[in-house]
Amino acid sequence: MGIDKQNSESWLRLMLRIRRMEEACAEQYSAGKIRGFLHLYIGEEAIATALASVMEADDRMLCTYREHGHALARGIPMQTIMAEMFGKITGCSRGRGGSMHLFSKSHRFYGGNAIVASHLPVAMGMALADKMQNRQHVTICVFGEGAMAEGEFHEAMNLAGIWKVPVVFVCENNLYAMGTALERSESQPDLCKKAQGYNVETISCDGMDVEDVFQAASRAIRDARELQKPVFLECKTYRFRAHSMFDAELYRDKQEVASWRERDPIELFRRKALASGVFSQSEADVFDREALDEVAKAVSFADASELEPVEELCRFVHSELESIDDS
Questions:
Q1: Does residue 273 lie in a domain region?
Q2: Closest CA to 109 of 41, 63, 170
Q3: What pTM was computed for the model?
Q4: Which domain holds residue 93?
Q5: Per-residue confidence at 3, pLDDT binned at 50, 70, 90?
């Protein structure tokens, strides 16, 4: 396989942790413990796993509202993520952000951004700051292909291409955005061709294959860091669940979903690793049990945590009216 035992174990462990956490989130949402919107990452775990294994500690990451897997991969503790999902004060955003707004400055994880494509210009600005201050950091900006129809995508890509900033735009192309097929929403469905119009390097990979994503991400992040330039990385993937827990999912054929499930990134990698003798079935089973144990503890922690006190609800809230009065 060309991948050593340590990396293979860490990849399978992380993908299993993401999958089991997401499955638990679906259960807790159905039980009324998680409220608001919930967008699951099930089926796309290989991308977050590979990116995390390539990024350095000081690199930044910005994501969409389907960010739980990336937050976990970036090092935010699962119990902190789950507490945020529950709206508890022990969450990474003190329970104020919920599922769509995970955030941790200490982990260089800047959201969880709910408005489609809103974080792309922010990522461009962060990368510009690094370039102007001669820092060898890279900003990773993750979004879905639906964001490529938004004006912010074009603005961010254009400026990144002009100013040559160290940013990697990672498009998790799951073919349906919120519910519209790619060929019905994009006049140019070849997303790399679309990105090339802004004079940036483009790379495409199989988002269901953690090894392929790792190789592509390694090249993209290396070029952004060493050559100080933007890179567009397309990861062709598929979400196994609906867009959100509210989605009736009437736009996809069930047989299509079933065929993609046969390319489950976790099972693909597990079978390949077992066949290569990297680890045994019993070891793989231990990884899964450990993930399930971690999830159970995270749910218990979130359930036992407190809500933010009512008297602190206005903390961190600022109004223009207050500013006028103060002046």
A1: yes
A2: 63
A3: 0.94
A4: 5-321
A5: low
SS (H, E, C) the chain: CCCCHHHHHHHHHHHHHHHHHHHHHHHHHHCCCCCCCCCCCCCCHHHHHHHHHHCCCCCEEEECCCCHHHHHHCCCCHHHHHHHHCCCCCCCCCCCCHHHCCCEHHHCEEEECCCCCCHHHHHHHHHHHHHHCCCCCCEEEEEEHHHHHCHHHHHHHHHHHHHCCCEEEEEEECCCCCCCCHHHHCCCCCHHHHHHCCCCEEEEEECCCHHHHHHHHHHHHHHHHHHCCCEEEEEECCCCCCCCCCCCCCCCCHHHHHHHHCCCHHHHHHHHHHHCCCCCHHHHHHHHHHHHHHHHHHHHHHHHCCCCCHHHCCCCCCCHHHHHHHC
Number of domains in the chain: 1
Residue 244 in any domain: the answer is yes
Residue 327, in any domain of the structure: no
pLDDT band at 1 (very low <50, low <70, confident <90, very high): very low
Q: Is residue 326 part of a domain?
A: no
Lowest-confidence range among 117-121, 236-240, 242-246? 242-246
- Percentage of residues of the chain with pLDDT beyond 70: 96
Q: What is the CATH number of the domain that holds 95?
A: 3.40.50.970
